[in-house]
Amino acid sequence: MNLGMDKWSITFSSPQSNNCRRGGESDRLSIQLFSLSKPGHFIEAPKELVDEEHPLLFKPFKTLGLFGYAASEAPPSDLFKAYCGV
Questions:
Q1: DSSP string, the chain
Q2: Which pLDDT band, with edges at 50, 70 and 90, does 13 fall under?
Q3: Cα separations (Å) of 28 from 22, 38, 85?
Q4: Are residues 57 and 86 in contact, defined by beta-carbon separation less than 8 angstroms?
Q5: Who wins on pLDDT, 42 or 37?
Q6: Tens of pLDDT along 15-29?
Q7: What is the pLDDT of residue 27?
Q8: How far apart are alpha carbons 27 and 65 in whole angstroms?
Q9: Which of 56, 46, 51 is nearest to 81 (CA)?
Q10: pLDDT at residue 9 above 50?
């Protein structure tokens, strides 16, 4: 069954160039949104980014656990903090 996705994707999706430029020698960190971790794996802050000046704000969590929590209760105003806040 052809849903016309080939025409839709050509019309609305074109390759974008990445114009991000950085100077210096430091590492660049990025976050991928709308993806799931492997089953059984936890999402957590890298240990080298947590110290006394920058304390841990959230406990390690499983993505599907967060989704289950959101679906099982009336979501609080800050769902993420309610589910895995320190």
A1: ---SHHHHHHHH-----------SS--------S--PPTTPPB---GGG-SSSS---B--B-HHHHHHHHHHSPPPTTHHHHHHB-
A2: low
A3: 9, 23, 25
A4: yes
A5: 42
A6: 556 566 667 777 776
A7: 73
A8: 31
A9: 56
A10: no
Structural contact between residues 73 and 45, judged by C-beta atoms closer than 8 angstroms: no
pLDDT band at 55 (very low <50, low <70, confident <90, very high): very high
56, two tokens: 């841990």
Which residues lie across from 58 on neighbouring strands? 85
| 55 φ, ψ (degrees, to nearest 5) | -70, 160
Of 58, 34, 63, 37, nearest to 46 (Cα)?
58
Contact 68, 46 (CB under 8 A): no
Q: Which amino acid is at 44?
A: E
* Separation of alpha carbons 74 and 67, rounded Å: 12
